[in-house]
Here is the input.
Amino acid sequence: MIKYKKDHWWIKWFSPNYATTLFSTIYVPVNWDSLTKLQQDSLLAHENVHIEQFRKYWILMSVAYLFLPLPFLFAYCRAKLELEAYLVQREFDRSNGVDVESDIYRNNLINQFVGSSYLYMFVCKKTVEKWIR
Here is the structure.
């Protein structure tokens, strides 16, 4: 199920420019309607991985995503869950003609882990670079 973040007061404040998946619902970002069809489908490929993760291990997903070992800086469990989703998204993008080998694409992907987008979920940039090879 897809819902707009902007329509739900309790979630629209949380990373408004990013999708958020809770169990089987994807809350799309406030700029959803301005994304191209390819961008929307790419984002859904990523978020569908999170739906599957919630389906497989919802208790672990709920606890690990928020607290293990920390919600930021060294959030290894959260980083690994996001990595799985980003790798699926990257393969989707590749199969749709996106240059996933470009420095821009690669740096954007790395910055999702080490930048402020996810509260600096993982600070070891070299480790992230190895993960996404």
